[in-house]
Design a protein that fits this description.
This protein is α+β, with helices and mostly antiparallel strands. It has 2 domains: 162 residues, Beta-Lactamase (2-Layer Sandwich), CATH 3.30.450; 151 residues, 2-Layer Sandwich (Heat Shock Protein 90), CATH 3.30.565. The chain has 10 helices and 12 strands. It has a 5-stranded antiparallel beta sheet, with helices on both faces. It has a 5-stranded mixed beta sheet with strand order 7-9-10-12-11, covered by helices on one side. Helix 1 runs antiparallel to helix 4 and helix 7 runs antiparallel to helix 10. The longest helix has 73 residues. The chain starts with a helix and ends in a 5-residue tail after the last strand.
């Protein structure tokens, strides 16, 4: 699935880059053409004005200007870059020209007719024998109440050649760039899909683990119920062990479902978080006292170091749930004659809760994963002790909702320390 998505994403990015290249290349050509046309028009207008000034000077249309009257002295103009002219009188009869080109004369005459009729100058392009020319046709009023048409034209072969060269250079650079960018795009597409792929894999794993966790207590309940059905003659007291198993597994399943519901609601922002002033010192003390009794039953030493008058803005119920999760985990993974220490310290702007145990510890590889759903360091022991690997995910969510930070320090066989830092004031 992800290979196909990766391929489609890469192709789509490549097509976008190619489209951008074509648009960019044609834009460059268009701007170049516009610049050449503007420059050529100015040049042709200047030449037309020069010819008109010569007509006024000699008071005649029948002139044959030498090249030095058109071009600056010492210039070397080729047939493709030189500017030629045609002069028509008011009856549109040929009065003068620099070079005779029969095929060109026909088109210049058509444009001369239009300008004589409208008395408005025109600038256009014409094509003769595959060669393009720029043609400027100007209406001129001369002494004696007469009018005339002066046309100047120039081949645009050189400009078109330069434009094509620009296009080829831009396209060459662009094609190379697109090839490089396609490889970069493919890499970025793969990188951008990686979080999606991991999320998809986690979802599949989540569903599989949830199914397994639900199947286990259901299987035990079903098996135990069938067993009880075979003991019709026995009393409830005689089957107390089996009934206790059903009750225990029902409770485990109820906790699992509740935790799943909590995480699902958290993902959709459906759990209300009520922020109010909380006496964290009191909350930690009360919760610690409850777990001190549980620790005593397991022959685990329990120590609490609690600073007084630590207050913050938070959700009391959620913070209590956070403490329960951390202390419950500590007791589950600490062997007999081990030790659990909970401490509450504070600075001017934050409260710091630390739950330290002398249990089995966590490897560095596992530390990076323990807040993932259904992840357990020792899956066999967790199932035996009723854990489903959801508690730390919920704890992480509670800390995030309070704009805090949770971290772990641990070494295998030496124990773990969970450190929670919570801001005293509500962060926006």
């Amino acid at each position: 699935m992800f290979k196909e998505l990766y391929r489609k994403l890469t192709i789509m990015n490549a097509l976008i880059l190619i489209a951008f290249l074509l648009i960019f290349s044609y834009s460059i050509v268009g701007f170049s053409n516009a610049a050449f046309n503007s420059s050529a028009k100015n040049t042709l207008v200047e030449r037309k004005d020069h010819i008109v000034s010569m007509i006024y000077k000699y008071n005649t249309l029948e002139i044959n200007l030498p090249d030095e009257n058109i071009w600056p002295e010492g210039s070397n103009q080729s047939d493709y870059s030189r500017i030629d002219y045609v002069i028509w009188d008011e009856d549109l009869k040929l009065a003068g020209l620099s070079v005779l080109r029969d095929s060109l004369m026909e088109q210049t005459y058509v444009h001369a007719q239009q300008v004589m009729k409208t008395q408005k100058d025109s600038f256009t392009s014409i094509t003769i024998s595959g060669v393009k020319y720029r043609l400027y046709t100007g209406y001129v009023e001369i002494p004696g109440g007469r009018s005339a048409i002066v046309q100047v034209y120039q081949s645009r072969l050189i400009d078109d050649l330069v434009t094509r060269q620009i296009f080829l250079v831009v396209m060459s650079i662009g094609v190379f760039s697109v090839i490089v960018l396609i490889f970069i795009s493919a890499h970025m597409a793969k990188k951008s899909l990686e979080p999606v792929r991991r999320a998809y894999e986690r979802q599949k794993e989540f569903i599989a683990d949830a199914s397994h966790e639900l199947r286990t207590p259901l299987t035990i309940i079903k098996t135990t119920t069938e067993l009880l059905g075979m003991k019709e003659q026995e009393t409830i007291k005689e089957n107390a062990k089996w009934l206790e198993n059903i009750s225990s597994e029902t409770e485990n399943m109820s906790k699992l479902i509740q935790n799943l519901l909590t995480l699902a609601q958290a993902d959709n922002n459906q759990i209300p978080v009520t922020m109010d002033k909380v006496d964290l010192s009191k909350l930690v003390r009360v919760t610690s006292d409850k777990f001190q009794l549980i620790a005593k039953e397991k022959d685990i030493e329990f120590e609490s170091i609690i600073s007084e008058n630590v207050h913050l803005i938070g959700d009391k119920d959620k913070l209590n749930q956070l403490l329960v999760i951390l202390l419950d985990n500590g007791i589950k993974y600490t062997p007999e004659r081990g030790k659990i220490t909970i401490s509450l310290m504070h600075t001017t702007d934050k409260a710091i809760i630390t739950v330290k145990d002398t249990g089995m510890g966590i490897s560095q590889e596992d530390i990076n994963k323990i807040f993932e759903r259904f992840y357990r360091v020792d899956k066999a022991r967790s199932r035996e002790q009723g854990g489903a690997g959801l508690g730390l995910s919920i704890a992480n969510w509670i800390v995030r909702e309070h704009k805090g930070k949770i971290s772990v320090e641990s070494e295998p066989d030496k124990g773990s320390s969970f450190i929670v830092e919570l801001p005293k004031k509500r962060k926006q």
